[in-house]
Amino acid sequence: MKRNGKLSTLYLAIVFIILYAPIFYLVYYSFNSGGTMYGFEGFTLDWYKEVFQDTRLLIIVLNTLIIALLSAAISTIIGVFGAIGIMYVKSRQMKNTLLSLNNVLIVSPDVIIGASFLILFTIIGIKLGFTSVLLSHIAFSIPIVVIMVLPKLQEMSPTLIDAALDLGASRWDVLTKVILPFISPGIFAGFFMALTYSLDDFAVTFFVTGNGFTTLSVEIYSMARQGISLNINALSTLLFLFTIVLVIGYYFINQRNTRPRGVTVKK
């Protein structure tokens, strides 16, 4: 048993090293004063200063954050009601069909989804830019939210809803005071997952951006095509740190929501 445990630990360590080594390599050279990724000549923050002095880049960062927050919020609202709708569909065949259609959007290649949106927006006359990117991010984020919320709905006992209805609660009260508080960890998980997917997405966004609008992932790709610049390292490092903050924030929110609460009995 001890030998198997050591082998599992070693395997996990190797996997994490393979996954994180390129990221730490990128972060390390973002502080290189030499301007290359071949030899570290000295510590500097000049590349970060250039990032913050680039007005165009800061506007792109702001665009990316607005798209991410808006798409995550809207997709969370739609995804929560979609998950509730799927959960309470009476026909088992219809429920399985809806789940399959939802899962297809998750496993479909981003290139296909991006090309499909490009064709759709061209046909219906939506100009490529902020609106097209926002609609695309909402569309691919909704299935993620549904997947995160459904397990919490399945954990909830039907007797909670029956008890609320027996006590005179309306359907709206059952939704807002029973169902939503119970599934709130899944809602937060769906929101943060949608937010990180939006910040990280490149393939879909690349197809639906216009000439006057772009996001951070597309901009980093454009910068990388022009040659090696440590501005890319600095920008990618900041994005990586922001993602870590989101993950840590979600962890603490989830811990608070899953913490056992005491029951107060009124005498």
Verbal overview:
- Helix 3 runs antiparallel to helix 9 (184-200), helix 4 crosses helix 6 (130-155) and helix 9 packs antiparallel against helix 12 (230-258).
- With 267 residues, the chain is mostly helical.
- 78% of the residues lie in helices and 0% in strands.
- The chain has 12 helices and no strands.
- It is globular.
- Residues 261-267 have low confidence and may be disordered.
- It has one domain (46-257): MetI-like fold (Orthogonal Bundle), CATH 1.10.3720.10.
- The N and C termini lie far apart (53 Å).
- The protein has helices at residues 2-29, 46-53, 55-87, 92-107, 110-124, 130-155, 158-166, 171-182, 184-200, 203-208, 216-225, 230-258.
Which secondary structure elements does this structure contain, and how are they paired or packed?
Layout lengths: L1 H28 L16 H8 L1 H33 L4 H16 L2 H15 L5 H26 L2 H9 L4 H12 L1 H17 L2 H6 L7 H10 L4 H29 L9
Helix pairs in contact: 1-12, 2-12, 3-6, 3-9, 4-6, 6-9, 7-8, 9-12
